[in-house]
Amino acid sequence: MRMRVGEAVMGRYDRQLIEFSAEEQESIRRSNIGVVGCGGLGTYVSTALALAGVGKLVMIDPDVPEESNLNRQFVYCKHVLSGKKPKPKAELMKEWIGSMNPEVETEAHVGRFTDESAHIFDGCDVMVDCLDSVSSRMTLNRYAVKTGKPLVHGAIDGFTGQLCTIIPRKTPCLRCMLGDLSDSGKTPASIGSVAMTIGSLESTEVLKLVAGREDASRGRFFSYDFADGRVTPVDFQIDPDCPVCGPSPEHRI
Ligand SMILES: [Zn+2]
Asked: Does residue 224 sit within a domain?
């Protein structure tokens, strides 16, 4: 990596090194990020983090891309349009990241995020929620709280989106904020530009976390309505009876 700050060395990170110090960029380079889901959010989160020079991306997704993904999951266009059966998304993301920034180490897992598969993320510093399944999202929230890993949550539905950065036991967890949700069974509407916007916001949160930046917005839940141009921050409190992060271990799930 051509990164010698203070010298006139032109490198791929020059423009972000105007904002990040050399130490912060080094922290980014050493970071190991778990990206759960390689769909509309995950393709953009992994792309943005690889471009920023994170050290490692661990990615998981159970699916193979199909034509209905292509309004947002740009990485898979040529593979779907080739007419041949594409490889799983996680493997294609690994190839894509390698072609974009070979300095980034990648690990691809084909499967779902479950209590059984979660251990593959044990080496990660930060987890990123790029899921569209509420039950998997709650499993990820439990894993993040159990392991003490910061979790960046993002979700989209049509012109709306949401974003929150959770620091286990310092901020409310997803269960404190959203309650006991389950999957509605409906396929959420997905607009590519909205997926990229929320994915971009998630990646920015990850970069601030791994660079060690303090951020007063942590634990705040941001609800976006792009149709009306509104962003609504909501301040939740840690729920003392939360079965995931609450202080009563006998109630924990
Ligand atoms: Zn909680």
From this structure: yes
